[in-house]
Amino acid sequence: xxxxxxxxxTYRICIFTVLIWVPSLFxxxxxxxxxxxxxxxxxxxxxxxxxxxxxxxxxDGYKTFxxxxxxxxxxxxxxxxxPVWEHFMTxxxxxxxxxxxxxxYITGGSKSNDAPASAPETDIKRALExxxxxxxxxxxxxxxxxxVDDSENPRTEDxxxxxxxxxxxRTGDEKWPLRLPMTKSAVRxxxxxxxxxxxxxxxxxxxxxxxxxxxxxxxxTTWTTAIVDNRVVAIxxxxxxxxxxxxxxxxxxSVYGAYSPAVIDYVLGGNISWIGTPEFAKxxxxxxxxxxxxxxxxxxxxLSSTGDEFFLPDSxxxxxxxxVGEKHVRYVPNSNHSMGGTDVMDSVDAWYHAIVHNISxxxxxxxxxxxxxxxxxxxxxxxxVLLWQAHNPDKRNFMQxxxxxxxxxxxxxxxxxxxxxxxxxxxxTGYTSYYVEMAYPSGIETPFKFSSGTKIVPDTTEYEWxxxxxxxxxx
Length: 475
What we know:
- The protein has helices at residues 4-15, 37-43, 121-130, 157-171, 179-198, 217-228, 245-256, 264-268, 278-287, 344-356, 400-403; strands at 50-59, 62-73, 84-94, 101-106, 134-137, 209-215, 232-238, 300-305, 327-332, 364-368, 374-378, 384-392, 408-411, 419-422, 431-440, 448-451, 455-457.
- By secondary structure, it is an alpha/beta fold.
- Residues 1-31 have low confidence and may be disordered.
């Protein structure tokens, strides 16, 4: 029983988190915190903000408000064609609401899209199962955008972010990074939900706490929304395995010897060439959630892809140990950046239900040793423990677009009570990716599924980061 004391101490130190609610913007950390341009922009009063209910859809056991919201004015017409940010929202309210906690999902969309006719089926299911108000916020960011001094028009998604990064890197003007208005969109959406629900037409329902989720750049915005607003009590960032951005980008290159087409906007936009410069460090201080990690003690459940086109499956190594407070991760097997065809939303539902209904999380910890040994210590009995693994016989590339749905699972047995261990030897040719997934009862039909980080063997790279930092550019 040599692991018993380690297991108990791991539980005490790493798993058991006491959260104290203090009505302050920076209640999540006892450390003194410095305001950044992100804080200042989000909390700056903007008279553009308004919303209106377009229609109300009655359903079986719920109703959905279809809302149009103006979140802010970002920049001016001298800089961008559409400075006023407009959004649609669907706010689904079950007939019985049992909690002041609400769910906010941040997603994308185009300015050319019509208002949704109804809420997503996932929202309706989540609202009815949890008996809480569930919202989807669309059009984050507003797009496409045309910048006045930009020859490449119009821009969407990463192309907008890359352009605004470049403007900041060249000028130092903190108004530029797109993460600021994206974050403010989510904060204004929470304001809208709270205000509408408190009205007579909304049912005089109290909503003042939020669990926030979103995928990709909206997953990044999930982090920054929690950073600036303490109404956020838990977060689920999806497919945004890139905290500690500079180290993640360097690792990306060292593995592939180039950059994936998925991140080509940051290459063509010249952002990569600034890595290692004071200007890039200042940008990361402003937008990288890793730099705000002492504010992020709230519960967090990271849902990442094993076959992501943007991020490598072992990117967790650059930030996981430094995250504070309650934290969980799940690498979803046989997934790409879209998470299509996976059970990721089941994981979202199970964890959200537990947050709302104060269901105890399973007590466990995991470690990936330098020699490749993955150890899971669990005080609570999992219903299933699986070893997931995939092999690429040619190169260190586990994108689903390259290897297909190659991950397979086998049951992993205890080596002693509460202890699970696995170490795979490097293959004769190529590379193997592996990790451990644990399932636990969640209080609803869908179980909790959490995992360890992913290990690659052999843990060698063929290339070396070699770009020379360059900030000697025309301003």
